[in-house]
Amino acid sequence: MQNNFEKLQEQKSLFLCLLISGLGILVATFFGKEVVKMVTDFTYIIVSGMLVVLSIIISARFRSTGNHGKAWLLFFGIAISWFIAETTWVVYELIYNQNPFPSSADAFYLLGYPFLFLFSTQYLKPFKKSISKKMIISTSIIAVSVLIPNLYMTLDNNSSESKLAITLGAIYPVADAIVLIPAMIGIVLFFRGEVNFLWTLLLIGILFEVIADTGFQYFTLDNSYYTGHPIDILFIWSYIMFSFGIYSHTQIFKKVKSVKHKNLFDSKLEN
Amino acid sequence: MNLDKEQLRKALVSLSIERTLLKMGEPVYEKVIKQLSREYHCYLPDCYEHPEYLNNVLKTVFGNSYISIVEAIKKELDGQLMEQPIEIFIRAISE
Questions:
Q1: What confidence category does residue B25 fall into, taking pLDDT thresholds of 50, 70 and 90?
Q2: Would the CB atoms of A191 and B64 count as touching at under 8 Å?
Q3: Angle at CA A74, nearest 5°, toward A73 and A77?
Q4: Residue A270: inside a domain
Q5: Lowest-confidence pick of A94-108, A187-201, B1-15, B18-32
Q6: Is the pLDDT of residue A153 over 50?
Q7: I need a labelling partner for A215 at 20 to 30 A (CA). Which of A22, A52, A130, A169 fits?
Q8: pTM
Q9: Which domain does A41 fall in, by range?
């Protein structure tokens, strides 16, 4: 079991990562939009790349054994989809100098959501008996309520953006709200357990995404969004939250060096 | 090998816990084994005599949802639930 000092150290690193990435983007803003665009785009590649590396580590640890092994393979699907999406965004923006929204990057961003939902359901499958109808209904109500500001914004806009861009912008918060449901259930289920740290960080990460996607939609409709906008900090923070959540899991389930699997009959034979 | 009934129950319980945890994933099984060894200096078969150890370890790792794992162990032991010692074991890990 991780001791409190290790847990504290882990959280210190988490806060440090959030602080550095947030401040990095804010400071880059003072050097102009081109600089902040470069800094933000590369930060996205780094944080999404880290998520891929960590999901490979945890998938290799579980070697697709049992429900959790399958769940981590699905998580690898999320990480790789979002990494491809971020790379595509950067290529459109920095190499082709085109507006990356909407683009093929969105297909990969959206592909991550079914993977995230399936990961959650696969992970929670062994605990389905502890999931009550009341739990599903109350988490669904919370998820729907976080959607209201976005739906209002989408329906009540007179933006010059294309219908595709407006629809895509609205789909993201809906997808966030859907994945929010199992994340909230996970927090309730594993309350007081070591694995709860992963679910807490996943939930916070998804909440960051909800706010960021709503903000992205708002500023896109407003024509004031640019890569490196402060709203991007929340997207980057959500990757950091996800990464630290997985890192905590690799620590909880790290390989045992030498635990003897004593057989019941050993003592019999000894006698 | 002449095994008495109590030893057979112990083996059955141990096997059921092992199967349940392995269904979740090998690292989950290893984690429980490691925690039992580190905190209580015991092995999986010893949980039959000390169900409270397993109960505590499951609560530490999975929090509130430990009860689902207990239910799964119970399901594994389905045919043996009529036996009183196994019933006592299940009751103890459910607490």
A1: very high
A2: yes
A3: 95
A4: no
A5: B1-15
A6: yes
A7: A52
A8: 0.91
A9: 4-250
Residue A267 lies in a domain: no
Chain A nearest C-alpha distance from B18 (Å): 11
Asked if the C-beta of B22 comes within 8 angstroms of chain A's C-beta atoms, the answer is: yes
Cβ atoms of B68 and A129 within 8 Å: the answer is: yes
Secondary structure string (H, E, C) spanning chain A: CCCHHHHHHHHHHHHHHHHHHHHHHHHHHCCCHHHHHHHHHHHHHHHHHHHHHHHHHHHHHHCCCHHHHHHHHHHHHHHHHHHHHHHHHHHHHHHCCCCCCCCHHHHHHHHHHHHHHHHHHHHHHHHHHHCCHHHHHHHHHHHHHHHHHHHHHHHCCCCCCCHHHHHHHHHHHHHHHHHHHHHHHHHHHCCCCCCHHHHHHHHHHHHHHHHHHHHHHHHHHCCCCCCCCCHHHHHHHHHHHHHHHHHHHHHHCCCCCCCCCCCHHHHHHHC
Nearest to B23 among A67, A127, A192 (CB): A67
CA geometry: angle at A166 spanning A162 and A170, to 5°? 165
If residue B34 lies in a helix (H) or strand (E), which one and from where to where? helix B26-40
A269 pLDDT band, cuts 50/70/90, is: very low
Min Cα–Cα distance to chain B from A147, Å: 29
Question: Which residue in A227, A213, A219 sits closest to A157, CA to CA?
Answer: A219
Q: How many domains does chain A have?
A: 1
Per-residue pLDDT band at A221 (split at 50, 70, 90): confident
Residue B64, chain A, CB below 8 Å: the answer is: yes
* SS3 state at B1: coil
Q: What is the mean pLDDT of residues A108-123?
A: 97
Q: B71: which residues sit within 8 A by CB, 6+ positions away?
A: A129
CB contact under 8 A, B30 and A255: yes
For residue B59, the tally of other CB atoms under 10 A from its CB is 17
Inspect the interface and report whether the beta carbons of A130 and B60 lie closer than 8 Å: no
